[in-house]
Amino acid sequence: MKQGKSARARKRTPHDVRALQLALLAGLPAVIATILLLSTHDFSAKLQWTVGTFVIAVWLGAALALRERVVRPLQTASNLLAALREGDFSVRGRGASVGDPLGELLLELNQLSDTLHEQRLGTLEASALLRAVMDGISVAVLAIDSKGRPVMMNSAAEQLLGAPLEALRKRPPDQLGLPPAQEGEAPHRTVELKLPGGSGPYDVRRSTVRLGGRPHELLVLADIRRALREEERLAWQRLVRVLGHEINNSLAPIQSIAASLRDLALTVPQPDGWQEDLASGLAVIGRRAESLGRFMTSYARLARLPPPVLRPVEVAPWVARVTALEKRLPVALVKGPPVTIEADADQLEQLLINLVRNATDASLETGGGASVTWEVSRDSVEVRVEDEGHGVANPANLFVPFFTTKPGGSGIGLALSRQIAEQHGGTLTLENRTDKPGCRARLRLPAAYLPVIGRIGK
What we know:
Elements: H1 2-10, H2 15-40, H3 45-85, H4 101-136, E1 140-144, E2 150-153, H5 155-161, H6 165-169, H7 179-182, E3 188-195, E4 198-211, E5 214-223, H8 225-266, H9 274-303, E6 311-314, H10 315-325, E7 331-334, E8 340-343, H11 345-366, E9 370-377, E10 380-387, H12 413-423, E11 427-432, E12 439-446, H13 452-457
Parallel strand pairs: 7-9
Antiparallel strand pairs: 1-2, 1-5, 3-4, 4-5, 6-8, 9-10, 10-12, 11-12
Helix pairs in contact: 2-3, 3-4, 8-9, 10-11, 11-12
């Protein structure tokens, strides 16, 4: 019984039928009154039938006209909304005007159609531009659903995976060659991939996007082989240029002096003092050969830097030991907060020795001073070495191996120091001071154990 009532409740009377019923109900009293009036007076039967028929016809016609007047605007609005839903923005409602409730409804629908049309055009243009940009770049970009299947990719990704998107959707995820790029928690890393379009190291970036209301994984794969080859080529060019310059600087005088000594040895009779000339020439050859040997030793040292052996190192004793080694100039030591780092003590001492020696050399030229201090900020330690020299004239060449402005310098001190800093997960930068003439070296290293004040500030 209850199910029958609920079923009848769910089956509502259509709106047009209810409008017709209300129209008939509104005119029914007048029709009944007319019929009663005709039947109570002494009218002929022909007149009664004529008038009765006319009244009923007018009553039914007015009801139907009222139903049509109510239903037709609703049908028009429904057709307009259906056209908008289908993406047809060319349909317009006639009679849109201000001051008329129906006209205002049609006016709003027409304005909504114009707004949606403009938005659709903007979306299509943006999508076309995005597709053109995505297809124009050499980086592979693809979106993968929760089942591991690609749902969107650019032309570079299709070339890299060796098939169009429609064919790749039908393959099992483990046959795409992408699982190594999807493993791990790091969103940005370098992965060795073997794909139909190329094998080698790829720069992989992962992120989460939503398509159709569902989460998808966005993969960006950049082939870094060409960049690595270009960097390798530039490195070889720099190395050959530096080696050629240094070797030629040694071989040119050796060759010249050797030719002079040969001519001297073949001269008959021997001139006076030829033995002193021979000894002097051989000494120059020996010094140049020794200088070339030191250069090759320095290069081997830079190229064979061993990985650091990390142990707890207290910053205060480490800085104090290094500053005490400099005897040419008193180096001011400004103590910072107690802190411990995980590092290779031997390599860090060599790094700081190079920085302190450079600061001392610069300060001796101007008669200024040098100082060393350190600070703790969040999870890192910054050691600063400052001098009062002339400053840095050309910062671009500071860390170029074998580049030096010092007479007799090897040119590997700063390059070796930065390499040590980077192997410890830190950085080394040099800059001119702004408070006074001179240079400031900043060595930033990750801290292993922060002081109590550092933890509170953190």
